[in-house]
Design goal:
Elements: H1 2-20, E1 21-22, E2 29-30, H2 35-60, H3 68-97, H4 112-115, H5 120-190, H6 195-215, E3 220-222, H7 223-241, E4 245-251, E5 259-261, H8 266-275, E6 284-293, E7 296-305, H9 320-333, E8 338-343, E9 349-356, H10 364-372
Parallel strand pairs: 4-6
Antiparallel strand pairs: 1-2, 3-5, 6-7, 7-9, 8-9
Helix pairs in contact: 1-2, 2-3, 2-5, 3-5, 5-6, 5-9, 6-7, 7-8
């Protein structure tokens, strides 16, 4: 409404100035106010009042919508009636209020200009206002679609984030029972043969469960915490294999505080024990390495064995633990992370995880306090 009022006020002022200043002759000359000036102001004010109604017509009878064939003639007919009415109102003010003399050959009647087509000027004004209404309506629809697209994009991103979090939670829920089942199966196999070892395994299992309950809900933790968890699991396996399992842990100093997915090493070391040490009668060795390589973090689990193979069918590789590990990496890091499993030249298998190197960011307030100190 403010823009409409401002437009017609400007047009009235411009038209009034053109009537007040007479451009005929050398330079401009002031002429006295007259009826044409009043009529100009009245016409602009009348169209200012009618503009919102014309905009409503443009919004309701937009030809761009369906059934446009009858909308266009209807709008043109409404414009004809409106232009004729405006012209009649102007003539009423001219003849009945201002008592202005008619033009030569014209009658002093508000309907005299109808058959003389004097209303065409107002009809052209109606078409201009109607076109502005169409432009306003199209712009409003375009802006609404743009806002709706932005809202849908935000909702889609939120849904994708929630879906990824739900999938990661599902993978963690699958991994923990899988690990617990295997450990309990190991304990049950040693109850009669090694009671002291079973007590040690139960103690380590309680530590593992406490760690899982404490950190299992967090998506990431440091390499130190992850390696410590894997070491406790391997200690349980050492009791089971009764001296046939050797463990080596090698963590670079600059990799200790790097963030890695929680429980990322446990299925790898479990796979190394299950497919490596458990398959031979001799001594097996599981080595865990963690090192930084540029902007990447490398976690390697290598199993090496010696001695003849046991007489048992080989388990199928790529169980639930490795599948979940690969899926978690894909969900958390996309193409920036990978899981590879390959045979080592000296025997055994090498499982390697590569993911972006990241460390936990310190709170800005704490960093500011350290800098001041």
């Amino acid at each position: 409404m403010a823009v409409i009022a401002l437009f017609w006020t400007f047009l009235a002022a411009f038209s009034t100035a053109s009537r007040v200043l007479d451009p005929r002759g050398p330079g401009f000359h002031l002429v006295p106010p007259s009826a044409p000036i009043v009529l100009t102001l009245f016409e602009c004010g009348l169209w200012a009042l009618l503009t919102p109604a014309v905009f409503r017509l443009a919004e309701r009878f937009n030809p761009g919508r369906s059934s446009w064939a009858w909308r266009v003639p209807l709008l043109l007919g409404i414009g004809f009636v409106l232009a004729a009415s405006v012209n009649a109102a102007i003539d009423f003010v001219r003849f009945d209020i201002l008592d202005a003399p008619p033009q030569p050959g014209a009658e002093k009647s508000i309907w005299f200009g109808l058959h003389r087509l004097w209303f065409v000027r107002d009809y052209i004004i109606f078409l201009g206002v109607l076109a502005a209404g169409f432009a306003r309506e199209y712009f409003g629809r375009y802006e609404a679609r743009d806002q709706e697209a932005i809202r849908l994009q935000a909702e889609t991103a939120l849904l994708r984030s929630q879906l990824a979090e739900a999938q990661l939670a599902t993978l963690r829920m699958q991994l923990s029972p899988h690990f617990l089942f295997n450990t309990l199966h190991t304990i049950s196999a040693l109850v009669d043969r090694d009671p002291a070892g079973v007590r040690r395994m139960i103690a380590r299992l309680s530590e593992l469960l406490r760690s899982t309950l404490t950190d299992g809900s967090t998506p990431e933790r440091t390499v130190d915490e992850e390696v410590s968890f894997a070491a406790r699991y391997l200690e349980i396996m050492q009791v089971r294999f009764e001296g046939r399992l050797e463990v080596a842990m090698d963590v670079d100093p600059d990799a200790r505080l790097a963030l890695v997915p929680t429980l990322i090493l446990q299925p790898l070391v479990e796979n190394a024990v299950k497919h490596g040490v458990a398959r031979v009668r001799g001594v097996g060795r599981v080595a865990v390495h963690a090192r930084r390589q540029g902007d990447s973090m490398l976690l390697t689990v290598h199993d090496s064995v010696s001695g003849p193979a046991v007489d048992a069918p080989a388990p199928a590789p790529g169980g639930v633990g490795l599948r979940n590990t690969a899926e978690r990496l894909r969900q958390m890091y996309g193409t920036r992370a990978r899981l590879s499993l390959q045979s080592a030249e000296a025997g055994g298998m090498i499982a390697e995880v590569e993911l972006p190197y990241r460390v936990r960011e310190e709170p800005k307030l704490a960093m500011a306090e350290v800098s001041r100190a």
